[in-house]
Specification:
Length: 425
Amino acid sequence: MSTETILILGGAFAGMSAAHWALKHVIPQLPKKGTSYNVTIVNPSKDFYWRIAGPRATASKELMPYDKLFYPIEPAFAYAKDKFTLVQGKATHVDPAGQTVFVETVTGEQKSIPYAALVIATGFTTPSPLFTLDTDRAALEATYDKFHSQLKGAKTVVIGGAGPVGVETAGEIAEVLNGKPGFMASTPKNPKAKITLISAEKKMLPVLRESISKQAEKLLKRLGVDVLYNAKVVSATKASGAEDAKTTVQLSDGNMIEADIYIDATGTRPNTGFLPKEWLDNRNRVSCNTKTLRVEAAGPRVYVVGDCGSYSRGGIMDQNDAIPVAMTNLRTDLIAHLSGTPAGNDRHYTPNAKGGQLVPIGTQKGVGYMNGMALPSIMVWMIKGRDYLVSMLVENQLSGKNYAKEGKWVPQPVVAAGQMVTSSG
């Protein structure tokens, strides 16, 4: 009996979700005669990392214990253990003609994994190691422990980047260092540290409207955070010598700030360096058909989900809309390939125009919007600020409950590769 593999590169949010969808809704509908099927995840860590809570974990492991951040991957697939494999390692390159991915495992072994269908879900890396699980749990815990020891004595902290991660991190660190403000206080009574957030734009949180951004600034000021606008971080140079040596932060407006701690929260970098250049757009994301999420330059039965895809605006809501599309089309294509019959109808991806963004600021406040409406601070706290969605979403993410049902969709005619407009970034 031959074995066909659905290979998923990446074991974070998108990769885990794709694996559950494949096991629940793809494999049960594939031809059974003479063939068995396997879903294989390749991931650097054997643990899933709840990166949403990275800002609070950066500030304090008492506020965000490590056992709320890391969850072993394999037990989440115990219901299908005979059809699931986890390979701990990283993809190094792909042979499209041979439909094979080459992987270096954590032990240094070189493996070649042939695929019947390939899902690229490698996500992104952040400039700061505080927000990315790039190797394994032990390494990231060690990074946090080291940072926490340095943070205790810090008098000046600079955070580059005023998107959600930068704003959340500034608020969490400010509260840990300066304490919670009084009920009516506009600034901390006895601040222990000067914390500066650098925004390259004229406002923070560029996705949110200006009035919400201004409210975020007020909440940060109550915690002792100053915001500098219209300035980019040009360089951050740490003095040689001791671990507690200061960092000089050079800004695009000519100013320099000396900091005990500098945190780079200026954005993300897609984990796509191992892929052929012709698969990527001009931002190094995986270029795909924005309706079907097929990677048409990669040949048959290759798909992309999550933040590394050119279609994506990022975030869990975006991912939840994309997973069923990519995996339904994978199933359609795989059935046609295995049975030798014409492909069925496509499922199409439509971006969620309303969207939403929730940004906790410290452990008590926050700003955000959902479905086009601004949310009161108490609601942001209730939904996300209490524990960064750990109690609300982790179980569903790990178990794949989100995808227990396939969901309704409107079949679309199959369009030949190249006829549909693809994203070029």
